[in-house]
Write a sequence for this structure.
């Protein structure tokens, strides 16, 4: 039976439009799959829609690149976003 972990937090992007997410890992192994959902606060960013690319994950983290679809540009520094993540480990 696979192991699945979920979590959520509020993180901000760095200068490269990247969010670094710490994960709860019960296995000590790199997850086989990592999924992230980003939901901006509507009050902070009215009308903005974000795409994301999960580009790196390891034993303790997931890195996500955030792109604004209204400008087709990478998000700048300090874009605070609510982040939900899920990781899957096979046995």
């Amino acid at each position: 039976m696979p192991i699945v972990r979920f979590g959520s937090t509020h993180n901000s992007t760095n200068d490269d439009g990247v969010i670094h997410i710490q994960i709860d890992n019960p296995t000590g192994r790199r997850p086989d799959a990592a999924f992230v959902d980003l939901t901006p606060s509507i009050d902070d960013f009215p009308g903005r829609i974000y795409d994301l690319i999960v580009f790196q994950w390891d034993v303790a983290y997931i890195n996500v690149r955030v792109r604004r679809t209204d400008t087709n540009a990478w998000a700048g520094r300090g874009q605070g976003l609510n982040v939900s993540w899920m990781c899957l480990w096979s046995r």
The chain has one domain: 3-89.
